[in-house]
From TrEMBL:
Top-level lineage group: Bacteria
Keywords assigned by UniProt, alphabetized: Histidine metabolism, Hydrolase, Iron, Metal-binding, Zinc
NCBIfam families: hutI (TIGR01224)
Phylogenetic classification of the source organism: Bacteria, Pseudomonadati, Bacteroidota, Flavobacteriia, Flavobacteriales
Protein name, per record: Imidazolonepropionase
Domain Amidohydrolase-related per the UniProt entry, residue ranges: 68-405
Organism of derivation: Chryseobacterium lathyri
SUPFAM superfamilies: Composite domain of metallo-dependent hydrolases, Metallo-dependent hydrolases
Coiled coil: none
Length: 408
């Protein structure tokens, strides 16, 4: 057992609700707090001195100077396993071309597929681990990572195996997702439907056999997969025992409805979601995930997070870090900016990058600092937790603890 503290403030987020709006008055602040850790789990959070008195002789890890502690952040949507770079796409978009025009002319996702297929496993693993190191430096302790730049059995499995290998090199919890349905690859000889069938017969059984991922994603969009074929695919995927998440309503509305209908864990993007579908999402258990990094990367509008929260949806915020639409990767900067444009409370943003994002991944053992949860937390050198979002990502995390161990 180990006692860590004292912290000027500990923000546990323990009593905050899973869905809907949250006011900042609902945030419980423990001043001069300590975190008691047993076997990697939180035994108790409370006043440091009291915890010390209650647990005489317990090893104490003293925190020097004024620091605050928050639950470790969760990035529930990334594509950080990739080769190459798409700086030219970024430049072309800013010079007037649209994301879809660039995709149709051979740039976009397909160019990342070629770079990823051509990259060696060593190179992909090395850059993936570097990106994870950047994420942990922000205070992120759990990160979802998608395949989707391989787009044939050999290369999708190669990506997922690399993600599995990366788990051996980091304490950050990695949650792999199979996104073979990102796009029908140009070299696939057949229809969209046939490609989706190929995923079901030639990729997912192997993913299952090797334990490479428990989640499946699809990009439903005019340029990718159409609503009806996607619905069929998702139903069959579910029958195979996978959890589902969907790239929904990024440019065209309608697909968040499919996500809800098939019982997806989350519907992500939602920049184009119409009011009626906001209501539909809000009535469901599907987490609505805003990806402000994609809005910033593409110069598109933000996900209507305010409306979603007011309607009662479970709103998470993730980075979507990828080489094309969201090259920044700084979830804290992005969530802070989303807050200023969408008028989100500090409580709503913190919930969105912790326990609500964890819920999207089906993980209930992280995201709040309370008894029994994994002792994943991040500290900042400041006397007030509001400074974290106020600095829009430029206040660096001081220490990151994973399972109670200093990991950054
Ligand atoms: O989430 N929208 C589809 N997929 C990614 C983009 C991936 C890419 O452009 O490489 C996204 O924005
Ligand atoms: Fe994405």
């Amino acid at each position: 057992m180990k006692l860590i503290g004292p912290f000027k403030q500990i923000i546990t987020l323990a009593d905050l609700p899973l869905r809907g709006k949250i006011s900042d008055e609902q945030i419980d602040i423990i001043t001069d707090g300590g975190i008691l850790v047993d076997n990697g789990l939180i035994k108790k959070v409370g006043n440091f001195k009291m915890l010390k008195t209650e647990n005489p002789g317990t090893e104490t890890e003293i925190i020097e100077g004024e620091q605050i502690a928050l639950p470790g952040f969760v990035d529930s949507h990334t594509h950080i396993c990739f080769g190459g770079n798409r700086a030219n796409d970024f430049a072309m978009r800013n010079a007037g071309k649209t994301y879809l025009e660039i995709a149709e002319s051979g740039g976009g996702i397909w160019s990342s597929v070629q770079h990823t297929r051509n990259a060696s496993e060593e190179e992909l693993l090395k850059t993936l681990v570097e990106r994870i190191s950047f994420l942990i430096s922000l205070g992120i302790t759990t990160v979802e990572i998608k395949s989707g730049y391989g787009l044939d059995a050999a290369n999708e499995l190669k990506m997922l195996r690399i993600i599995k290998k990366a788990q051996g090199q980091t304490k950050v919890r990695l949650v792999p997702t199979c996104l073979s349905a990102h796009l029908k690859p140009r070299d696939f000889d057949g229809s969209n439907q046939e490609y989706l069938e190929y995923i079901l017969t030639d990729i997912l059984p192997k993913v299952k056999e090797e334990g490479l991922a428990q989640r499946v994603d699809i990009f439903i969009e005019k340029s990718a997969f159409q609503p009806d074929e996607s619905r069929d695919f998702l139903v069959k995927t579910k029958e195979l025992g996978f959890d589902i998440t969907v790239h929904a309503d990024q440019f065209t509305p309608g697909s968040s409805r499919i996500a809800v209908e098939v019982g997806a864990k989350s519907a992500d993007h939602l920049e184009a979601t119409i009011d009626e579908d906001i209501e539909f999402l809000a009535q469901s258990d599907t987490v609505a995930t805003a990806l402000p990094g994609a809005s910033l990367g593409l110069g598109e509008k933000f996900t209507p997070a305010r409306k979603l929260l007011d309607a009662g949806a479970i709103v998470a915020i993730a980075s979507d870090w990828n080489p094309g639409s969201a090259p920044m990767g700084n979830l804290i900067t992005q969530a802070s900016i989303l807050a200023t444009f969408e008028k989100l409370t500090t409580a709503e943003v913190l919930a969105g990058i912790t326990f609500r994002a964890a819920h999207a991944l089906g993980l209930e053992d992280i995201g709040k600092l309370e008894t029994g949860k994994k002792a994943d937390f991040v500290t900042f050198k400041t006397d007030n937790f509001q400074n974290v979002l106020y600095n829009q990502g430029s206040l660096n995390a001081e220490n990151v603890y994973i399972s109670g161990n200093l990991s950054h």
